[in-house]
Design brief:
This protein has 551 residues and is an alpha/beta fold. The protein is built from 30 helices and eleven strands.
């Protein structure tokens, strides 16, 4: 659906031309929700109210004020058993849109953020180092690592996107977290995450600097719009919203500070309504009332004329998890196809056919993970990373959990030198060959082991087990494969395909005809140059590939 109805969005993301907004919807399964936050505040006030502390009366006054305004049904229950009272969760759930007002109720003699930071202990709750990123965080991290997402803003206090990126890359310098006005001065990364409601992780580590940046109460939310201390953040969000189209993931846009940003952006330089290329798209089955307000503010008179069409085209038909999963797959496909276009050793008609082969394997991946984003994450961080690490060699890409194809946007792949320098175009070629051969029912591709995607079984349709194929970039990577136990002692029939012959054939095997190399027939080496030399059509290329691996 995304490819058919929102192809411009895929192109935007592949070229890092979308400003990505993140909201609580991406972290619902990983962090405590607002119900937990408010429950902690009420329990804190209860315990203080029944204590022997000198200020217990002030705490009781605050609690009674909250109950009177937001939970009148709970007042009698509290009075019947003050020390044992606990609010009913189903009643707290109705306060989801009022949490900022509730948290604004203060305690006499205490700081304005007292209930938030001391009562709810927000920094400890959302900055807890034991919190684990979910599939959506990891998929966003892969898009950042690939270079497809470089400008993000988050209203979430947790640090799960940052943690996911560090987990898969073993590098904390890829993403700059921006909270304080001075943070950009220390930036080193290619991507920036502006946390406009503050960061619990940093508030926990450096409370003096970052605790005042936590925004949750109504007064704090209004400060982002009017307080000079937050002018820098307001200006940055306004700049990015004006310059880039927005992709909004898990963010309801209920807070007045965000609506003000969209309103200011429109007054500065409005995005015209474009049915094929909406400026604001939401990862939602349908736009919510608060999101509809953003569209009305953004498009002005056009919204009145095209209301139904704008509402329909601005919602992607699904929530953030499936949308990000689809984008991750499509961005990879776009980058492989861009690399194919750079390959200069095959005729353009052959490369066109291989483009379809890449799409074939994309469909195989989509069919494999279905609607479960966690399965896709496991594939990308496990088998796929193994495939990439074997091709490029661990000396080149390290041992991190994910291996980007080539870091950068699709446009950079079209114009830069990294694709050819890394022989990434040849990696795209072999992926295309495997895919187009399967699409034409010449063979079937599968994994030798679920965790080893570098060992690919290629078998003729209707034939037996087939041959285990391992594709590598060049000589150094070939030697690393030949040191592996399955090559040295394994009984499987294996073919080691070296794609970049400019790096030299393996010293363990002389150059020869197709499929020649080692004397032992069950372990053979093959140079791609022997397969592709003077090929005139994709059919000829597939026949030579079949002959080379002795299918």
């Amino acid at each position: 659906m995304l490819r058919a109805e929102h192809s411009e969005l895929i192109e935007d993301v592949a070229d890092a031309r979308r400003f990505v907004w993140l909201g609580s919807g991406i972290s619902l399964e990983q962090v405590p929700g607002l119900v937990d936050l408010m429950s902690r505040v009420l329990s804190f006030l209860r315990d203080k109210a029944v204590s022997d502390d000198a200020d217990s009366g002030d705490h009781e006054d605050a609690l009674r004020q909250i109950l009177a305004q937001y939970l009148p049904q709970e007042t009698s229950r509290f009075e019947a058993d003050p020390s044992g009272w606990t609010p009913k969760k189903n009643r707290l759930r109705t306060l989801g849109n009022s949490y900022s007002d509730l948290l604004s109720i203060g305690v006499v003699g205490k700081p304005s953020d007292y209930l938030l930071m001391e009562g709810a202990r927000l920094a400890e709750l959302y900055g807890d180092p034991s919190l684990v990123p979910g599939p959506t965080h990891f998929l966003i991290a892969t898009l950042i690592y690939e270079g497809a997402v470089s400008k993000l803003a988050s209203g979430n206090w947790d640090g799960l996107v940052e943690k996911a990126l560090k987990t898969i890359s073993a590098d904390d310098s890829l993403l700059d977290v921006y909270v304080d006005v001075n943070d950009p001065r220390e930036g080193r990364g290619d991507a920036e995450l502006a946390k406009f409601h503050g960061c619990a992780v940093r508030a926990l580590d450096q409370p003096g600097k970052y605790r005042p940046k936590i925004i949750a109460t109504t007064a704090q939310i209004s400060s982002l719009h009017g307080d000079p201390d937050f002018q820098h953040m307001r200006d940055r969000l306004l700049e990015l919203t004006t310059r880039l189209r927005s992709l909004i993931l898990g963010l309801s846009v209920q807070d007045a500070d965000l609506l003000a940003i969209f309103r200011l952006s429109t007054s500065r330089s409005p995005w015209p309504w474009d049915v094929g290329h909406p400026a604001y798209v939401f990862a939602e089955p349908a736009v919510s009332p608060s999101q509809r307000t953003v569209l009305e503010v953004a498009y002005g008179a056009s919204y009145g004329d095209e209301r139904r069409e704008i509402d329909s085209r601005s919602a992607l038909g699904s929530y953030a998890g499936p949308v990000v999963a689809a984008l991750a797959v499509e961005v990879l496909a776009a980058k492989y196809q861009a690399a194919l276009s750079r390959h200069g050793d095959l005729p353009s008609t052959v490369l066109d056919a291989l483009q379809a082969g890449v799409r074939r394997l994309v469909l195989r991946i989509v069919a494999a993970f279905g609607r479960d984003e966690s399965v896709l994450v496991e594939f990308l961080l496990g088998p796929y990373a193994d495939f990439m690490r074997t091709y490029f060699g661990p000396h080149a890409v390290g041992q991190s959990g994910y291996v980007p194809f080539v870091r950068g946007t699709r446009a950079q792949l079209h114009n830069g030198h990294a694709v050819l320098g890394m022989a990434a175009d040849r990696l795209a070629v072999i992926v295309g060959v495997l895919g187009v051969g399967e699409a034409e029912r010449r063979w079937r591709v599968s994994l030798n082991k679920e965790t080893k995607a570098s060992r690919i079984i290629v078998a003729r349709n209707g034939a037996g087990r087939g041959v285990t194929l391992v594709a590598v970039r060049g000589q150094r990577e070939a030697i690393e494969v030949m040191a592996c136990d399955d090559w040295v002692r394994g009984s499987d029939e294996m073919v080691l395909l070296q794609m970049d012959t400019a790096r030299g054939a393996s010293p363990r095997s002389p150059r020869g005809g197709l499929g020649k190399g080692r004397g032992a027939r069950r372990k053979r080496e093959l140079d791609w140059a022997d397969v592709a030399e003077s090929v005139g059509s994709h059919d000829e290329l597939l026949v030579r590939f079949e002959t080379g691996v002795l299918l």
